[in-house]
Design goal:
Order of helices and strands: EEEHEEHEHHEEHEE
Radius of gyration: 33 Å
Largest sheet: 6 strands, mixed
CATH superfamily of the largest domain: Resolvase, N-terminal catalytic domain
Number of strands: 10
Low-confidence stretches: 18-37, 220-224
Structural class: alpha/beta
Number of domains: 2
CATH topology of the largest domain: Rossmann fold
Helix content: 25-40%
Shape: elongated
């Protein structure tokens, strides 16, 4: 100290605070912490359905085409840990208007056993055409933390927007099914008005003419 003045360190020698989020190592260089992305494996089951058994004996039928599209979609999600189960869940010749289908029952049993994480279909109506039935199926999916994916309609129930779109599309699927039912019922009613037999046993005392499809008294071949 000279002349009564204290000697202070120059400002460029002052230590600066460490940047937030860095750790100092022995070499003096900052090291930033990285959070590794955790990928959870997802076991994907493919469900396919065809209303009629027509063409199922072909080498490549509708069920094969549905499964191929679903397999390609699952392969595109490999980075998310998705893998395709080899178990076949295919219902050929079964209507989507009810849940009385053998492959669907096996699918639900495996879901309840904890063997499936994601159910993949080609289109929503392959799983069900009934809004009530689909609501019950979705309840089973939710109870066992199973997601539902429709390949061609870009629907994934693991997101809120996906669940909203699913409900909208299922409403239209139910509407389409009811319109088809009404058309068939109206056609049958119109045929009956013209005296045509629309299937089933003929009423007592009548017979169905195989050519005109009309009901005639007595039995065909009996003397009138």
């Amino acid at each position: 100290m000279t002349g009564g003045f204290s000697r202070r360190s120059p400002p460029w020698r002052k230590s600066s605070p460490e940047p937030i989020g860095t750790a100092t190592v022995s070499s003096g260089s900052p090291r930033r912490s990285n959070v590794a992305e955790i990928t959870t494996s997802k076991r994907c089951a493919i469900y396919t359905r065809k209303s009629t058994d027509e063409g199922l004996d072909m080498d490549f039928n509708s069920l094969d085409a549905q499964r191929e599209a679903a397999e390609a979609f699952i392969a595109s999600q490999k980075h998310r840990g998705w893998s395709c189960l080899e178990t076949d869940y295919s219902d050929g010749g079964f209507s989507g208007g009810n849940t009385e289908r053998p492959a669907l029952k096996r699918l639900l049993a495996d879901i309840k056993s904890g063997k499936i994480d994601v159910v993949v279909v080609y289109k929503i109506d392959r799983l069900s055409r009934s809004l009530l039935d689909f609501a019950s199926l979705q309840t089973v999916f939710d109870e066992h933390q199973v997601s539902f994916v429709s390949v061609t309609q870009d629907i994934n129930t693991s997101t809120s927007s996906g669940r909203m779109m699913l409900n909208i599309l299922m409403t239209f699927a139910q509407y389409e099914r009811e319109i088809i039912t009404e058309r068939i019922r109206d056609k049958i009613a119109a045929a009956k008005k013209k005296g045509k037999h629309c299937g089933g046993p003929a009423p007592l005392g009548y017979a169905s003419d195989p050519q005109t499809k009309k009901l005639i008294p007595g039995h065909i071949g009996d003397p009138m």
